[in-house]
Amino acid sequence: MPNSTQVPIDDQISIMAAQREGALPDQDNPTRQPVSPRRAIGSMAFTELWERFSFYGLQGILSFYLLYSLDRGGLEVPAAAAAGIVGAYGGAVYLAQLLGAWAGERLLSPRTMVLLGGIIITAGHVCLAALPGMLGLGVGLVLIIAGTGALKTNITSIVGFVVADKPAAARDASFSYFYMAINGGAVLGPLLTGFVQNEWGFHWGFGLAAVGMLGALIQYLFGMRGLPERAKHPSNPLPIAAIWKPATTAIAALLVIAVASLSGWLKAANLSSLVTIVALVAAAGYFLVMWTSSTVSRDEKKRTVAYLPLFLLSGCYFGFLFQKFTAVSILISERVDLSVGGWTFPVAWITMVSPLAGVLATPLIARLWQRLGARQPGAPAKFAIGLCQIGVAYLYLLLVTTLTGDATIPVWLVLLFMVVAGSSEVFVGPIGLSLATKIGPKRFGTQMVGLNFLTLALGSSLSGLLGQLFTAISNTAYFTFVSGAAIVFGLILLLARRPLARGLNAGL
């Protein structure tokens, strides 16, 4: 497959899941009508471009919408609460994708799930754009979480279905177009919504994201009739008699959330804690299923045991990385001078520099691994490098905040931080994805993909908790803690790399 580090890590995981889904031809429907792969892939790619445009466009300005004062168009939410909301939102998006993947397999067809997801996401962006205050924020984010969960993994699975019986070269080319669409949306989204927000306000930025999602929905409606037969039916439908079980669970969960909200227990400040707990419980369930299964061999269990510390440290790494949406966004809103000549630098462009740096660093690192060949470091050592590098990035931010004292910080100094922090993802995100698909038990490949999703959910919610810590202590103490923790974790992993590598390669 094409180099997976060319797209954001959450998209890499869903693409890998789709390649697993589409690995075999559709022998259950030999009489299906022939489908033009080029046309179907083009339709899905264009739909995904606009969906990612809206998603990353919103993500680039959401933190600042919460943090900015009323006279600047924001909601003036306290920084700790804003960090909790952003962290919980990010974590919930990844958790919802796991549920969406399950629903597309057991309840509704992937084609229908994508359509419903598109409608719900569009409604969410419209609510953010049209409804003022916390009402629009709450309704909009909940709808976007639910819609993204329904759409994201299922549209990628459909791509896998389209190319299932095609030669490897054709499959790779198709996914390359899909990658390109994701890249386009991830870059265009924050570029345009950030500019619109900077010039005319947040609600205009949300409105542009809504227009992008509406474009995705219209494109999908035109292209959905030509999708493969596999996309029109759930692959493992739940018997009608058994539907009451998930329905009862969903109703019970909604009642618990409603009671917690009405009682005042569920607040913005503890949302990240709740999502963190859910992510950890889900991860424990995945690991326990694999460790207790009689179909998993002894060597496979050894590999998953060795993967556990890497899973936890990967979650910590993404917690450090995703602080660009929490702690670092708070720092930007409070202390960074965005003036460049007579123009204000769009805040969404600052956070966009991080993934852009990762994309630009990819060819250099990939070439290095190719040159080293068998001499290249193993996965634990690469994780260690990524942790140490992001630790150094925060050490640099510690020096910047200390040396500038109470003065404002020039925006270019923060942009340099984003470059160093963002490029570190090359050593963790794609390496963890590749490792999970390599070491997973044969009967539980989907669970390993699910675990990769959970590192992102865990990292997002952890970034919310770290953002809340940022508001409670001094900048010096905070950046000392974060940089020290990342570097110490990296050094410990470096020391343990050999026994971990032996465990990860057991039986391979």
Shape label: globular
> From the alpha-carbon coordinates, what is the Rg to the nearest angstrom?
22 Å
Order of strands, widest sheet: 1-4
Structural class: mainly alpha
Q: What's the total number of strands?
A: 4
Task: Give me some keywords for this one.
508 residues, mainly alpha, two-stranded parallel sheet, globular, disordered N terminus
List the helices and strands and how they pair.
Elements: H1 9-21, H2 37-67, H3 79-106, H4 110-130, H5 133-162, H6 168-200, H7 202-223, H8 244-262, H9 271-292, H10 298-321, H11 327-335, E1 336-337, E2 339-340, E3 343-344, H12 347-372, H13 379-403, E4 409-410, H14 411-423, H15 429-439, H16 445-472, H17 475-495, H18 497-504
Parallel strand pairs: 1-4
Antiparallel strand pairs: 2-3
Summarize the structure.
The protein has 508 residues and is mostly helical.
